[in-house]
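Technical annex B. To support the medicinal chemistry partners, we prepared a structural model of the target in complex with magnesium ion, based solely on the information shown next.
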Amino acid sequence: MKITRKEFLSFSGKIILGAPILNSLFLKPSSALPLSETLNSGDVMIEVKIKRLNLVHTWTISRNSSDFKENVFVKLEKDGIVGYGEAAPNVRYGENAQLTVQRIHEAESIYHSTDFFHYMDIKEKLDNTILDQSCAKAALDIALMDWIGKAFGVPLYKLWGLNTSHAPVTSFSIGIDTPEVIKQKVKEAEPYPILKVKVGTKRDEEIIGAVRSVTDKPIRVDANEGWKSKEEALEKIQWLKTQGVEFIEQPLPSDMIEETAWLRERVDMPIIADEAVKTAADIPKLAGAYDGINIKLMKSGGLLEAWRMIQIAKALNLKIMLGCMIESSIAISAAAHLAPYVDWADLDGNLLISNDPFSGVKVNKGKFIYNDKPGLGVEGEF
Ligand code: MG
């Protein structure tokens, strides 16, 4: 019997699968995309899909380079209400799409045994169940908070008690490239008032020079752990200071906390931790070495942990940046709902892809445009 791809997807989306079958499915190579299963038990339904997000430009940072990303999407349904979530697996943290799908399914029973309104109980259970692939936790947490917002009939920013007019404008990221392409990217980024430029290479001067040859906008710089000694980082930051750079993100490898403290005493530029901080538990040891932290939902494991991180960072007088991976409008909108509570936003992941399957919080000249739909306020084809 021959079935069309559409029929196959529709069929595969309806079958109820047992764990052994799932395990074999998850180990399929990513070329078998898209992957889709529905687990239906009682009145809770969790659907998981991998989607390929194509990048407008090849995305290069000091660690690696890619033309597309495979993100994992979650649809959580109960009582006729649907919540959407997303995971953006990141190789830096040992994550991939197949393992992420597996972790989501391993945590699935929590949603069958816990009242959704006891979402803090669900967070604790998730923290005890998913010990790697924090992005899998993020997908489930985002989907649940979307569901909660919809159940209460309010946008998430209202649930948090936040004033959207306080949200900082988002920066727009410029990945590592040839000077000609960098100039082109900066021109394409014309609507965005602040740029974030990736460095951490042997040709940082050339990269910044290319940016500065076409714009005098404020720039923020991310070395992604690319400089390997405190002396090299000191020299680079002193030079960047002459180039109108506002702050530097993760100049040294994440484990070089003492060296970063040494650096901080010698430079007149805020130093922000990114790779050095994933969850709230990482924050206290960074106070003194860093001026601020970059919170990302994929590292924290979702919105509830990000909320906790914001509270702790504020208590320690650390600046707070809200960042992202390459993500669709689901995860970007989720983070944007927290943006009114932070100092800096770098939520441009959905602007770097050409086939965003969803729309939600939008951006105009760097400013977030929130809608008043409940939950994440996201729509699209799952
Ligand atoms: Mg970073």
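Notes passed to the chemistry partners:
Residues 222, 224, 249-250, 274, 294 surround magnesium ion (CB under 6 Å).
The longest helix spans residues 134-152.
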